[in-house]
Amino acid sequence: MSDSCDGSYDDFLDALETDDGYYYTCSNGHGTLPPRRVCPHCGDRDLESEPLLTRGKIVTYTTVTVPTPRFEDDAPYVTAIATFGSVRVTGVLLGVEPADVERGLEVTATVTETETTDERTIAFRP
Ligand SMILES: [Zn+2]
If we measure between CA atoms, which residue out of 66, 1, 3, 52 comes closest to residue 27? Predict the structure, then answer.
């Protein structure tokens, strides 16, 4: 494992916030997000840090109208999974009406704070 791959999730959010997002890729080309130390797909421990693509595409999404307590004041909102090259990222979709979301929508990844708890979380914007 290289020294560049011991970042925490907070470090990752810091990087994402400054448009400097990254992900880990294993020797088999699987992508994963920090703070993983082992590829979740094949168990490879030789992870390298790569810059996250600036644009991803929504592959699946869910409109949440009955949220977990953590997101109580944010509902309704859309959670989505977007692919950025070989890595799948889960986040909250902002700036789009839930009815207007569709698969293939291009988004950028950023960081937002939930209205409920002020916790930082990954967000997507078109
Ligand atoms: Zn792998």
Answer: 1
